[in-house]
């Protein structure tokens, strides 16, 4: 049998990746409260917002208000998306104590997705990220690279592992310190996900690779298990499954943090997360959105609580 | 990395285990049509009904009508539940060509569950099954033993692997030919499921063990992957996730066959099943029940079809 890591770090991307893809707008104060509930539940990494033009992503127009509104907790890493220099400058327009700990640049392993999503080729996106990465690192800020569509693409279909390796190499080349292997449309299955991770390992250590799986086809936890079996111990997920799937309206998107934590706890893997407090955080934000949490664990445990 | 079987056989338990736990009654003709759609989609084993007192399970009162109404297809194995001699006699009260290919006796690894579900201890249930197994095998009918609550029990909580081994040994002792390792309430995670299977392997070959996982906590596919990694190549699932969870009203029960098939096809494992035809069979029975299929794969693919 495979051997698994003894501890796992979860990066909750709900406040950014999740809420960015929810239709219902949420006030900045609710986003701040969500981040604080997540850190109270034991999350040590939280993707809080995006410094991108409100013309493109109106849901994140309150980025500065959210980033600077959080009562920070020692030992927690707060990250924000900064697609360009303007975004980075905006993220740093505050006293140093309120800077993000990490910035994220968002690329794609699919040329078609890169073109449709950020209006440029993969190579051009890297050219655009390079000065952002350099400026951030010069200020002592960590840099993570999101690699989207590493298994499948809504426009190109299946993505070859070589394309993932190509993107990972470009990311490494400009100074990105760690990367997410993301199955953006949730079509991946264990062996395909393992091949995408393998291709990434040509450029990054296993500790620098995080798994980011969507549950659109219900495969996220088996993909998580497959990645764990390779030694991956960083994973991204979204409390209450925030986010949905922009490429399949009505379908499930980001895997719910609750479901990932249940899997890990059941396997005796330390996450440092209080599942009950996490479920409550998911209920809190779901109520603000006027819907149920998209998490089977949340549902089953709440039914049990109601007894 | 683990090595996986090259082919998997799925036993669809939707017409029996699924419909038995659905509130909305379904006419016998619809059940027959469901079985026929499943075999047309490539299913080679189908659990079609239960010969149990209609006083206890009114949903299965039409058992003979369903069993004898099916236009059988060569190479397909039709199984029925027969909890006692009366049930077996009723199942065989027809010309030989209309007999079931296999009967199923339903036990539990939890004493409390055995008491609450079938009103006797585990040892007493085995005594009750023994003559049924003997009579069936004397007629050349195969016998499968369902082992429920092999990971967790709604009354006892976690179930030790030793209890699973104990039940498996008793089943073997009375001539049961193969067994299901069932996570009846869906609380299992990969390592726990693997320990239940290991305990069963003390008495049965891997080819005689099937995995039966519920998706109440969203863990069924990761448990399936864990079992595949041990060489298990028989799995039970329910088209459209028929059945729900009787121990957590409103929660998910049997894992959807669609979701299992997607996982296996994505891993290059042969199932012989046409996923599109299977999805249509799930839509057919869900419409009869007045609800949506409980399958993320079905939902994502139908959204894609609608384009």
Automatic annotation (TrEMBL), chains A, B:
Belongs to the HMG-CoA lyase family. Residues 8-279 form the Pyruvate carboxyltransferase domain. Its EC number is 4.1.3.4. SUPFAM superfamilies: Aldolase. InterPro entries: Aldolase_TIM, HMG_CoA_lyase_AS, HMGL, PYR_CT. Keywords: Lyase, Metal-binding. PROSITE patterns: HMG_COA_LYASE (PS01062), PYR_CT (PS50991). This is hydroxymethylglutaryl-CoA lyase. GO terms for molecular function: hydroxymethylglutaryl-CoA lyase activity; metal ion binding.
């Amino acid at each position: 049998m495979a051997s698994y890591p003894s501890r796992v770090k979860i990066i909750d991307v709900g406040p950014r990746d999740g809420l960015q893809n929810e239709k219902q707008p949420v006030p900045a104060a609710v986003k701040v409260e969500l981040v604080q509930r997540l850190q109270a539940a034991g999350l040590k990494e939280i993707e809080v917002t995006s410094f991108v033009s409100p013309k493109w992503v109106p849901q994140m127009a309150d980025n500065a208000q959210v980033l600077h509104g959080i009562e920070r907790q020692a030992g927690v890493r707060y990250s924000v998306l900064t697609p360009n220099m303007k975004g980075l400058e905006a993220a740093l327009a505050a006293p140093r104590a309120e800077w993000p700990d990490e910035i994220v640049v968002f690329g794609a392993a699919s040329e078609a997705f890169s073109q449709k999503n950020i209006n440029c080729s993969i190579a051009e996106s890297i050219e655009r990220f390079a000065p952002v990465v350099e400026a951030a690192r010069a200020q002592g800020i960590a840099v993570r690279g999101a690699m989207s569509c590493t298994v499948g693409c809504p426009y190109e279909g299946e993505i070859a592992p070589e394309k993932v390796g190509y993107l990972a190499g470009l990311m490494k080349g400009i100074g990105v310190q760690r990367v997410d292997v993301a199955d953006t449309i949730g079509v991946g299955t264990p062996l395909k996900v393992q091949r995408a991770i393998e291709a990434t390992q040509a450029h990054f250590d296993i500790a620098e690779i995080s798994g980011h799986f969507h549950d659109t086809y219900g495969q996220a936890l088996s993909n998580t298990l497959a990645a764990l079996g390779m030694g991956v111990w960083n994973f991204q997920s979204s409390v209450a499954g925030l986010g949905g799937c922009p490429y399949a309206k009505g379908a499930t998107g980001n895997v719910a943090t609750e479901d990932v934590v249940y899997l890990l706890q059941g396997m005796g893997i330390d996450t440092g997360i209080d599942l009950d407090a996490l479920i409550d955080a998911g209920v809190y934000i779901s109520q603000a959105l006027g819907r149920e949490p998209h998490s089977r664990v949340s549902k089953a445990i709440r039914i049990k609580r109601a007894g």
